[in-house]
Amino acid sequence: MDVKVRKGLRYIEYAATGVLMVLSVYVAVSYAFGVQTIYVVSDNPSSMSPTINYGAIVITYPTPFTSLHVGDIIVFHDPRGNPGIIVHRIVGVSTCGGAMCVQTKGDNQVTNPTPDPWNVTARYYLSQVMVVVPDAGYLSPALWGFGGSLSVLPLSFVAILALFVAYGLKGEKKDG
Description:
Blueprint: H1 3-32, E1 38-40, E2 57-61, E3 73-77, E4 85-96, E5 99-105, E6 119-121, E7 125-133, H2 152-175
């Protein structure tokens, strides 16, 4: 492999590692302060497909509700009182009872052909989506159907698989 290409790949590796470290610190600090910043997209088919598909994770930031705009993707509690959270795009901003409210809609035109039949107020709003990591949610035991102490099983499998991959890559570097 060309020296310039190898050097370029090394810089890309450094940048990717830096971004992952910053995101990890952000998530850890947020969690320490009691703020959930990572959500796994578990509706199948995803109401946000093709933008955000089943199995993706979204990393969020608690942007002030009054700073939201049309086009932003937000995370909020279901205003109908159903359990769980919803990730949808803002398609309209208006005033409801003297306070700001937003109209939302999923990007999936098949499952969400029209805007949602509710308005989201600050009461239901959680945070704004910052980063989408495709397929990373498959590491979550919840998507595998495991709960409680059984959730250790898929995580152990993933850790062992990662060790085998790392060992294999280390062996390739020695051979090459």
